[in-house]
Amino acid sequence: MIAKIIEETKNAVVAAIEGTDDILSALRNTVKNQVTGALKDTGNIASTATESVGSVVAGAVEAVATTTADLGSAAVSAVEGAVEAAGSVGVSVTDATSSAAMAAVSAAEKISADAANTVKKALLSAVSLPREIIEKVIG
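Given the sequence above, the corresponding structure tokens read:
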């Protein structure tokens, strides 16, 4: 199921950002929709919910890496959208933030060390994300 969520998210993100001038808003809205849909599909089991959140973010980061968009900003936007959507359906914001940030970094690491460093720096500098959780995730 995780692989399916990642693939669906990648396809949705690519479709959403093609031809748009506001990539970050399109990305954020797509991630929110994907998280909401994934959580409705999996129910509200905590471990499954956080895995779904992470899978959506991973798919978004992987999709953005195939474009010319700023990967760091895109990762932050994806994490923000995922956390907002997860929180709106009752998932712990702390758990959602942790899962989303871990997934963003992990997906970036699969791309390259430079991509991972870009995502880590962007997440750490995002004032909209709880720094203590991001620091804990990044280590």
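The chain has one domain: 2-138. Try to locate this feature in the token string yourself.
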